[in-house]
Structure formats: C-alpha cells, structure tokens
Amino acid sequence: MIDPKKIVLVGMPGSGKSTLGRVLAGKLNFPFYDLDDLIEEKEGKKIARIFAEKGEGYFRKLESSVLSERLAGGEAFVLATGGGAPCYNENMQRINSKGVSVFLDVPLNHILQRLTQTALDIRPLFSGMDTSEIILKLKNMYVERSPFYEQAKIKLRGEDISPELVIA
Ligand code: S3P
C-alpha cells in the first residue's frame, strides 16, 4: 500500500536531495533519513570504505536491503536516497509501491558546481578523476539513470532547487 507520508527523494549525486530532504522533513515534522547514513550505520563503515573493501556489487545489495527495511516500516519520513539507489534491483518500483517519490532534476552544470573536493572525497564513484572525467561520468550517469528517475511521481526541475523556494 502506498503511504503518502513516506517521501523518497531521488536524483543525481550532488542534486541536493539531503539538503532539501532535511528542510522538507523539518517543515512536515517528519523524521529525516539519508540512505547513505543508514548504510554506514548498519555496516559501521564509511561508504567510500565499503566500496574500497567490498566493491560496488556488495554496496548495491546492502543499499537495496536497507532501503527495503526502511520502506517496510509503518512510520512517516522523508528519505534522501543515494544517486544510484533507484537504478538497481528494481528499487524504483519498490519505492513507488510504498511511498511518494520525488525526482530533483538539476542541470549537470549546477551539479558540477556543487561537487566540491570534499563532496568528491566521500563519493567513491568519482575518486581520482579530473574535471573532464567527472563531466563525462556525470553525462553518462544521467543518460543511464534518468529513465529510472523519470518514474518518480513528482519531478522538481530547476536551475537551482532552493529548499526555501520549493517549500513555501
Ligand atoms: C552513489 C551516490 C552516493 C552514494 C554512493 C553511490 C551513486 O550518494 O550512495 O557513493 O551511485 O550515484 P549521493 O547521491 O548522495 O552522492
């Protein structure tokens, strides 16, 4: 059954899911969860370390199981997913069968500006890349992933999605 009080934000890395999610949760008085934080808690390791030690395949399984657990509970929440989460293991269908998905569709040039060095350090998929490699990777990711993101029930599109503007 779809629960309108389970709000799940999806979109590219650096699109502002966690920032917007926190503000939205505060306004609605719902708890906020970041899927990457839940994974780190469960595994007792940072995401970059999970990728380095166990590989992406392991991470994707863990990601799907933590997501399913959270969706199965009875509580209301706002959940920011990692950029890849909706694109593996039928997660997008699972999200849509349990809650309200929201795609933050932010132009790639804005995403690029947000991916500062610190933000890149915690994102293993971009590790060791220079700017032109990051741009190419982001473009390819967008092409591969947008068919999944586009299945979201709500799409917020913008040059820059500012939480204050979105949540009036
Ligand atoms: C990933 C995005 C990250 C994190 C992991 C993989 C991806 O989350 O889940 O590094 O595949 O795009 P953010 O979207 O918060 O960067």
From TrEMBL:
Amino-acid biosynthesis keyword on record: yes
A UniProt-annotated Pfam family: SKI
Cellular localization per UniProt: Cytoplasm
Protein's organism: Cyclobacterium xiamenense
Biological process according to GO: amino acid biosynthetic process; aromatic amino acid family biosynthetic process; chorismate biosynthetic process
Cellular component terms (Gene Ontology): cytosol
Function according to Swiss-Prot or TrEMBL: Catalyzes the specific phosphorylation of the 3-hydroxyl group of shikimic acid using ATP as a cosubstrate.
Obligatory cofactor(s): Mg(2+)
Enzyme Commission no: 2.7.1.71
Protein name stated in the entry: Shikimate kinase
